[in-house]
Write a structure and sequence with these properties.
154 residues, mainly alpha, three-stranded antiparallel sheet, globular
Length: 154
């Protein structure tokens, strides 16, 4: 009798651990973003992307693609962030009908504050408990997961 892949207990256990680990990491990041920045982690991700972009500005289509958000979700998120003074939104200068978002100085300060706490309370704690070889393995596996899921999206 041949065992089907979905009957493989080792794979099922690894899948369970991966899903739980992703969930617990997202919960920790959400809690920390709310506490240290009074912002949802989903909204914070957009600010982090803007902070790393040239001139801290990105087109809305690019933001949506990077985050795998729908255009309407990006628009809604930007509306909330604009009201909080964290971003501005405007037309792309070349007269096209496209729009872009720019991180404000208040947004930059928020990103620095939340990332500093995130590093101390989540990232460094995780990596310190993994050790060097496990950290390298996690990086390699994470990059491969992103690659596989990106190919599935294409």
């Amino acid at each position: 009798m041949t065992m089907r892949r979905d009957d493989d207990f080792d794979r099922a256990a690894v899948w369970h651990d991966l899903v739980l680990a992703a969930h617990l990491l997202e919960v920790a990041l959400e809690r920390q973003s709310q506490r240290d920045g009074n912002i949802s982690h989903g909204h914070f991700k957009l600010l982090v992307l803007l902070s790393a972009a040239e001139n801290q500005t990105m087109g809305l289509k690019v933001l949506a693609g990077e985050l795998r958000f729908s255009p309407s979700r990006v628009s809604h998120t930007l509306t909330v962030l604009e009201r909080q003074g964290l971003v501005t939104r405007g037309r792309v200068p070349a007269g096209r009908r496209a729009y872009e978002a720019t991180l404000t100085s208040q947004g930059r300060l928020l990103v620095v504050r939340v990332l500093r706490a995130q590093r101390a309370e989540i990232r460094d704690v995780l990596f310190d408990n993994l050790g060097a070889s496990d950290t390298v393995a996690l990086g390699r596996i994470s990059a491969r997961v992103v690659e596989v899921l990106d190919q599935a999206d294409a």
